[in-house]
Structure formats: structure tokens, C-alpha cells
Write a structure and sequence with these properties.
The chain has 707 residues and is of the alpha/beta class. The protein contains 30 helices and 19 strands. The structure holds (S)-3-Hydroxyhexanoyl-CoA. (S)-3-Hydroxyhexanoyl-CoA binds next to helix 2, strand 5, helix 4 and helix 12.
């Protein structure tokens, strides 16, 4: 019908193949092609039914998200898919949708407009639009409840999580699972139903329930959305759209959906989340390490150090099906580490995340060892011993001796110089940083730290491996704290300064939680252990410039043994089950220390708290960009969203600054510079962007174009 939609025939069945690689998005031309193909099938007397199928790896991954960017940047609203879907549903000849891979978003909406759906058992279906800050915009909020009932439709549209083909079949969303060749099965199915009355999804009402039955479903869903997707508007809009249609007709429901869809699409939240969607894919692109760079097969790995990080990392590999040796220096340490792993898995089973059978298999993949004997077989080692240069160097010298040439030698250091560690080996090209975040088996971020001599194949392997491990790998340069922790320093510094200037601990945390951070900075410190930063600060104290203000309250708390959750006291007080409560003692102590230091006390607004902390991130981020330790501003955004609880709906710190307006951000930073001195010196790149009227996003485009 056009080059995106092919039509062929298998005797009396028309086969409509959508062929728009890589994921058959419904880009301009695809809906038109399908519509013309349906018309042709209807006007061909030799055809009894039609099958719609996707070429390549998937059915249809949804609307073309790039089109949304064009729409919002030009301010125009283009044709929706709705007319096509009505056209399919009104087809005189039955249309069977054959799903493999994914039927997501507009893809599922397309599938639901067919009279029947068949699917491969491995397929997935879902309405993930809320993850882009929008809602289904082509009748999904209206057809889905008609097929599977209100409760499950609300869960899928508001939660955004896909379901498996088996679950879809059990819910009645699909009519048959087809093992083996999908097309053959779909054509056979089409012949079977041809000539029988073809059900239109929009006319089904049996599963809609009554308003009395549905009221508690909507109330509970709104409650869940407010708690689990705090700050995100789209889930609530999705629930509103479903409710609107249930209380009236299909057409009125579609109108309500269209209005809510447009409101969501043109919101800052959606723009930010679409930036994140493409950003998560952009970070995999490294200008001097092209996609075709050969990767080293990683089939067996070893982790050195079975502490919290090492154990978590071993679980990450095991969860991906990769056998892993876990080494420690003595039985007691190893048993402690394995005990923690078993406990972690047991709690995953309890929470329903994994089955016991899955966990048993994973545990079999982890082999505790006390020596390097089996290390000659592994393709990669991740060192996760205590943070100390001397110890790391010894471990790397050992690894150099025992590992085969070609194996990757990675360090999980969060602070130390990769090049110095690499220099302890005779093969610095094999050495790289793989900075996992705690808890390693949960957090999605993996900072991949490139040393001066890290080989391209080693980098390519780690980037590809991160996807296999279920992580987002972001390549960063080798500076102190790399990207994430380097920025976290000024962020937490400002949080402490604010407390020393008169803000209450909980006011600081609350302001940032309301901004959308998963956790306030003081509670985060307590969780991670205040002593960690304290020890690092002590080690680097000699590098501090004299005469520059340094926060002191946290160091004093540490001197008192208040390390946070692990000691029951830190910025907060914790009960047996680690529930926090405010600690008036901390407030009194800080007031006293501040008075002794001559820091004037004042009322501090939530707005100032947010600006001081968030703009500290932005300013340091701009320095990192300029120095080349992050490839693009979006890389910093992805790091902050996936490793530091920055709200995805604000797009990350750099995107957020663009959204606020760099001029405004810069002015505020200049004010802070005047009030607080040198630490707030505006980053030169930020100043330059403001002077030239550019954004970080435009800076990124220039970087990509120059590469
Ligand atoms: C929607 O449908 C709204 C409707 O209600 C209609 C309203 C009117 N568009 O992820 P991958 C690109 S909203 C454009 O690496 P995988 C992606 O950027 C949409 N491009 O592969 C990448 O490009 P590149 C609802 C898209 O195998 C390449 O395809 N749907 C789209 O790991 C490969 O992607 C969704 O939210 C798209 N829709 O995962 C689903 N999708 O190579 C979004 C992908 O240049 N997509 N690309 O970097 C996904 O979840 C995953 O891509 C999928 C495949 C699971 C399908």
C-alpha cells in the first residue's frame, strides 16, 4: 500500500504487514497504509478476512514518539489514530491482529480495534504512555476496560506496566495464543472466524460494571498513583479518562480522552519524560566507540569482595544468568556475604518479585571462593573491596597475575583514580570502572568510568553488558567522584549550609521531596551512612582550599558516633524498624554550633532550599560537561534520574534548568555567588550558554553534530 505497509494474500486472507523498522512505530504513512489495505480487502470479493502483523522483531511499539516532539515544539496538534481505528472496527470483513514482540501504546490500541487478537506466547502488551507523561490517545482508555474490565484497565493505563501474552489471554484481551509460526496460525484463525459475526470492541459493555462497583476502584487507583507515582500527573489523567467513558458513551469517553491526552502531551512533564526516553537510548552512543566495535563475550565473571556492594553485584550477574565467583579473604567474611545474598533473595521471594525456583537457580550460579585459583577462566572481574588505594592496587596486581589476557578488570570504586589503579597492572587497557549504586541489585544506574587507557572493546563490552544486566550504563570520565558523586557533593554541601543557617533538617528534606526527589538529602545521608562521606572528607582534607567555607555539622555528628540508620541516629533518630523521627537534639546542637561559628540564623523558604540544592547540581554539572567528564547534558540527566532519585518528570537537573530558563538559573546562581562567595562562581559554560541564548539541549545537539 506504501513502503511502510505491505499487502499480500494467502488465498482468501489478506495479510497486511507493517514494516517500519526498528519497532514499527505508527509514523506518518503507517496509518494511511493500513487504512488503504483494509479498504482493498473489503473491495476484493475473493477475500474473507484480513490479518495485520508486524515485520521484524515486534508488532507495533506505539505512536512515533518523535512526532510528539515535532508537535509540541511547533505547537500543532496533528491527526490522531482514532479515525483509522474506527475504520478498522467498521470493516465489513473481520480483521485479526497477530501480535509478537510488543503491542505497546498505539500498538495495543490498534490491536484492540481489530475484531480478534492472536499472539505469540512471548509477546507483551501494554499502555505505557504514562511513562512518557501522557495517556493513551487513540481510544485505549475506552477499549481496554471494555475488553478486560475496569480494574485491570485502570491498573494498566495508570501504572504503565506491560503484561505477558499469557496474562492477556487469561484476561480476554487476546483470543488465542499461537505456538510456532504466528502468521500461519493467524491466517488459520482468520479462516475459522470468517463469515461469523465480528465483534466490535467499542460496542462491548459486559465487563464495564456499574458506577457503584467502579467507584472504589477509581478511588484506590488514585490513591496508589499519588503514592507510587508521586508528582506525576498522567496516571491521574488516565484514570479520569477511563472514568469519563464509563459514565457516558464510548464517543464521549474518546472526547474526554483526547482532551486529557492533549493537556498531558503539551505539559512540561511529558516533554521531560520524552527527553528521558530518548536520553536513555542516547547514552549508549559513544562518538569514538561506534556500535560495531567488537565486544568481548562475558560468560563467566568474578567479584572480589563479598561485602554489601560485592554481594549485590554478584546477584546482578546471577540474575542475568551469568555464573559468578565471589571471592573474599576468609570463611567468616564469605559466609557473611553469602548470608546477606540469601536474605536478599528470600525477601524478593516474599515480596513476590522472584519465585523460589528462580532464586534457587540464581544461587547455584554464585560460587563462593577463598582464592584466585579459578580466576584464569573468567572473562571479567569486578573488584569491590574496601575503598582504599593501597588495597585496590594490591588486588589489581593480583588480578594481573591470575587473569587471562583479554579479561576485563573492572573496579567498583566510587572515588578513586582509575588510572592509578590501572597502573598497578601490566594491562591498563583492560582496566575500567564499573560504578554500581547501592543496593546494586536494585539501582538501575551503572557509571562506566573510562580511564586514560581503557580499551574501546572494553568500553563497548561494558556498555552492552549493562543492558543485559538490566542497568543503564552511562560512560563518564575519571574525575574525583566521577559525575554522580562529584555533583552530589555540592548538593549535600548546600543542604548542610542551609541547616547551619537556620533551616530545620526535616524542612530541607521536605522541600526537596516536594520538588520530587525520591528522598531528601539528609535522609539519604542517613541511609547511606554519614561516616562514608566523613572518612572520604578526612582523606581529602589536605586538598581543601583554605578560607573557603566548609559544612561542619555532619562531621560533628559523625564524631559523636551518629552515622545514620546503622547506628540508630544521624540527622534523624531511628527506631528498631528504622522508622525515622525528628531529633530535637540535632536541631539544638546545630543551633549551638552555628552560633559558635558566628553564622547568622534566619528563616529560609522552601523555594530557597530547592534553588540552592538543585542549582548547585546544575552548576557543577555544567563544569563537568565543559571539562568533558560527561559526554552530553542528557548523560548527566540519566545519571541523576537513575542513581540519585531525581524526578524523571523533571527530565534531570540539566533539562530542568533548561525548562526553568538558563537565564533565570544563572541569575539565581549569581545572587548566591554574591551572598555566599567563591563556591558559587557560575560555571563558564553556563555563562556562555546564557550569553548566546542557548540551552543545554542545544549544546548536546552541537556536540552530537561535531562528533
Ligand atoms: C503512544 O503510543 C500514544 C498512543 O496512545 C497514540 C496517541 C495518538 N517511537 O528501546 P530500543 C526507537 S506513545 C519512536 O532501544 P528495545 C528507539 O528510540 C508510545 N521511536 O529497543 C531506538 O532508536 P535508536 C507508547 C521509538 O528492543 C529504537 O527504536 N509506546 C519508539 O530495547 C530501538 O528501541 C512506548 O512507550 C517509538 N514508539 O525495546 C514504547 N520505540 O536505535 C516505547 C522505540 O535510534 N518503546 N523507538 O536509539 C519501547 O518500550 C522499546 O523501544 C521496545 C523495544 C520495548 C518496544
Amino acid at each position: 500500500m506504501n513502503n511502510l505497509v505491505r499487502v499480500t494474500k494467502d488465498n482468501d486472507v489478506t495479510i497486511i504487514t507493517i514494516d517500519n523498522p526498528p519497532v514499527n512505530a505508527l509514523s506518518p504513512g503507517v496509518p494511511e497504509g493500513i487504512s488503504a489495505a483494509i479498504d482493498a480487502a473489503n473491495s476484493d470479493p475473493g477475500v474473507k478476512a484480513a490479518v495485520v502483523i508486524g515485520a521484524g522483531r515486534t508488532f507495533v511499539a506505539g505512536a512515533d514518539i518523535k512526532e510528539f516532539i515535532k508537535m509540541t515544539s511547533s505547537g500543532t496538534r496533528r491527526a490522531t489514530l482514532l479515525p483509522l481505528l474506527l475504520h478498522i472496527e467498521d470493516s465489513g470483513k473481520p480483521v485479526v491482529m497477530a501480535i509478537h514482540g510488543q503491542a505497546f501504546g498505539g500498538g495495543l490500541e490498534l490491536a484492540m480495534a481489530g475484531h480478534y487478537r492472536v499472539a505469540s506466547p512471548t509477546a507483551q502488551v501494554g499502555q505505557p504512555e504514562v511513562n512518557l507523561g501522557i495517556i493513551p490517545g487513540a481510544g485505549g482508555t475506552q477499549r481496554l476496560p471494555r475488553l478486560i474490565g475496569v480494574a485491570k484497565a485502570v491498573e494498566m493505563c495508570a501504572g504503565g506496566k506491560p503484561i505477558s501474552a499469557r496474562e492477556a489471554a487469561a484476561l480476554g484481551l487476546t483470543d488465542q495464543l499461537i505456538e510456532g509460526d504466528l502468521l500461519l496460525g493467524a491466517v488459520a484463525f482468520a479462516r475459522e472466524i470468517a463469515g461469523k459475526p465480528a465483534p466490535k470492541t467499542r460496542e462491548r459493555t459486559q465487563k464495564l460494571g456499574t458506577s457503584v462497583e467502579n467507584a472504589p476502584i477509581f478511588a484506590a487507583a488514585r490513591d496508589t498513583a499519588c503514592k507510587k507515582q508521586r508528582g506525576l500527573k498522567a496516571p491521574l489523567a488516565a484514570i479520569d479518562a477511563i472514568e469519563a467513558g464509563i459514565g457516558s458513551s464510548f464517543d464521549e469517553g474518546c472526547q474526554a480522552e483526547a482532551k486529557l491526552f492533549t493537556e498531558c502531551l503539551f505539559s512540561d512533564q511529558s516533554k521531560a519524560l520524552i527527553h528521558v526516553f530518548f536520553g536513555e537510548r542516547e547514552v549508549a552512543k559513544i562518538p569514538d566507540v561506534p556500535r560495531e566495535t567488537p565486544a568481548i563475550p562475558v560468560n563467566r565473571v568474578a567479584v572480589v569482595g563479598s561485602g554489601t556492594m560485592g554481594g549485590g553485584i554478584a546477584m546482578v550477574f546471577a540474575n542475568a544468568g551469568i555464573p559468578v565467583l565471589l571471592k573474599d579473604v576468609d570463611e567468616a567474611a564469605l559466609e557473611l556475604g553469602m548470608g546477606k545474598i540469601r536474605k536478599n533473595y528470600a525477601s524478593s521471594v516474599q515480596r513476590g518479585r522472584f519465585t523460589q525456583a528462580f532464586v534457587d537457580e540464581r544461587l547455584k550460579l554464585i560460587t563462593p571462593v577463598l582464592n584466585y585459583d579459578a580466576f584464569s577462566d573468567v572473562d571479567m572481574v569486578v573488584e569491590a573491596v574496601f575503598e582504599g588505594m593501597a588495597l585496590k592496587k594490591t588486588v589489581f596486581a593480583d588480578l594481573d597475575r591470575v587473569c587471562r589476557r583479554g579479561a576485563i578488570l573492572a573496579t567498583n570504586t566510587s572515588t578513586l583514580n582509575i588510572d592509578e589503579i590501572a597502573a598497578a597492572t601490566s594491562r591498563p587497557e583492560a582496566v575500567i570502572g564499573t560504578h554500581f549504586f547501592s543496593p546494586a541489585n536494585v539501582m538501575r544506574l551503572l557509571e562506566i568510568v573510562r580511564g586514560k587507557k581503557s580499551g574501546k572493546e572494553v568500553i563497548a563490552t561494558c556498555m552492552q553488558l549493562s543492558k543485559k544486566l538490566g542497568k543503564i550504563g552511562v560512560l563518564v570520565g575519571n574525575c574525583r567522584g566521577f559525575v554522580g558523586n562529584r555533583m552530589f557533593g555540592p548538593y549535600r554541601r548546600e543542604a548542610q549550609f542551609l541547616i547551619e543557617e537556620g533551616a530545620e533538617v526535616e524542612a530541607v528534606d521536605q522541600a526537596l521531596a516536594e520538588f520530587g526527589m525520591a528522598m531528601g538529602p539528609m535522609a539519604t545521608g542517613d541511609l547511606a551512612g554519614l561516616d562514608v562521606g566523613w572518612r572520604i572528607r578526612k582523606e581529602y582534607r589536605h586538598l581543601e582550599k583554605p578560607g573557603i567555607r566548609q559544612p561542619f555539622a555532619e562531621d560533628r555528628l559523625c564524631e559523636m558516633g551518629r552515622y545514620g540508620q546503622k547506628t540508630g541516629r544521624g540527622w534523624y533518630r531511628y527506631d528498631e524498624s528504622r522508622r525515622p523521627s525528628n531529633d530535637p537534639e540535632v536541631s539544638a546542637l546545630v543551633r549551638k554550633w552555628s552560633a559558635d561559628a558566628g553564622i547568622p540564623q534566619r528563616q529560609i523558604s522552601a523555594e530557597e532550599i530547592v534553588d540552592r540544592c538543585i542549582y548547585a547540581l546544575v552548576n557543577e554539572g555544567a563544569r563537568i560537561l565543559e571539562e568533558g567528564y560527561a559526554l552530553r547534558a542528557v548523560d548527566i540527566d540519566i545519571i541523576y534520574i537513575n542513581g540519585y532519585g531525581f524526578p524523571a518528570y523533571r527530565g534531570g537537573p540539566m533539562w530542568h534548568a533548561d525548562t526553568v530558563g538558563l537565564q533565570k538559573v544563572y541569575q539565581r546562581i549569581c545572587e548566591f555567588h554574591q551572598q555566599h562567595g567563591e563556591l558559587w562562581e557560575p560555571a563558564p559554560l553556563l555563562r556562555r550558554l546564557v550569553e548566546t541564548g542557548k540551552t543545554f539541549a542545544e549544546f548536546d545537539k552541537e556536540q552530537v553534530a561535531a562528533a
